[in-house]
């Protein structure tokens, strides 16, 4: 099923007809004969969307929306109200009560299906983000609550010159705290200022559907695709209205540019957009936290091992070399014991910085243990790997770290094990990492502050097989 929809209507015939249409569109359908029954179904069944009549036997559609929005677990459930006749006043009051849209009977099935797809798509995307945010909170990675909300930036974009908007924009400015700006489609696509949170595409001119191209361009632009889009069209443009929703419009006005209706719809779009942005940012922060070492800012083992697997697959598939360097600070325990863990942390942070600054952009550096660092180098043969290892050894040996507190300086050294992928041999990255680890221990046993190469055949810099030096 593509979604669970609750139909609330006191007329059995209306429910049956709508159930047949929605079932044919592969929706799971629930039914309720009154507002109270519908609210109970919302609480128990948790539908993805509610399609309710405005003339329920026990309450109005507006009362139903008010009660639904007061339910903590259902406050964000999309609601479409169905009105027996087009009445602008009731439409405005229903939107003010929290309805996402108000459709008139007989229902235009083309627009209804497009509206259902649009609202359910947005609902499922937000539910996924909320699920990931809940996981982050369970892991103790919750963000502090957002501060004071600033006014939103809203761009009004008429797609044809014969659409007068000045008076309508002035009316919205007088009622909402947000910043409104009229711009051309070219200005919308080539912004040199902060991106608006909402684009209102006004497509009510003589050429119907002229705004669909702009909508498509906004949705495919990497910088603009997360903005909310409200599409405004004429009542006789039903095909264009449905297309706008399927192309990614978040909301739709089908009766022309109506400032009063936009005043009711825009705050909801701004709120949803900001919630999605916050959840998306939290998810990205959580992902970074999951794969990043908090002390040094380097990647951790959780990230490094899957990266090695991808690097190994690419090297094997393209017959290209790669190398691993495993570096371990010498006598690091003595630094902690003699100077304290704050000093040890300062040393680790500084060593991580020096390693990072002396590698190529394509190279990966990760902290995979207490004082152990991994460097993965694609397209790297024997000589290049040894040169890099020597450069890292020298830059660490020749530098000192300023200690926190007294400003004294301390030096440190590093031992490095080097392992090269075997040519023509399928080898798991864990095996290569194990060979680098054994080479590291060989460097430690030889007196520390040294480099050791795993004793096997790898690649030279010309792509030829090369024997390891003893």
From TrEMBL:
InterPro entries: CheY-like_superfamily, Diguanylate_Cyclase, GGDEF_dom, Nucleotide_cyclase, Rev_trsase/Diguanyl_cyclase, Sig_transdc_resp-reg_receiver
Domain GGDEF: from-to ranges: 320-456
GO molecular function list: diguanylate cyclase activity
Keywords linked to the UniProt accession: Nucleotidyltransferase, Transferase
The reaction(s) this protein catalyses: 2 GTP = 3',3'-c-di-GMP + 2 diphosphate
GO biological process: cell adhesion involved in single-species biofilm formation; negative regulation of bacterial-type flagellum-dependent cell motility; phosphorelay signal transduction system
Pfam families for the chain: GGDEF, Response_reg
Domain Response regulatory: 4-120
SUPFAM superfamilies for the chain: CheY-like (SSF52172), Nucleotide cyclase (SSF55073)
One GO CC annotation: plasma membrane
EC number, UniProt record: 2.7.7.65
Name used for this protein in its record: diguanylate cyclase
Organism: Salipiger abyssi
Upper lineage: Bacteria, Pseudomonadati, Pseudomonadota, Alphaproteobacteria, Rhodobacterales
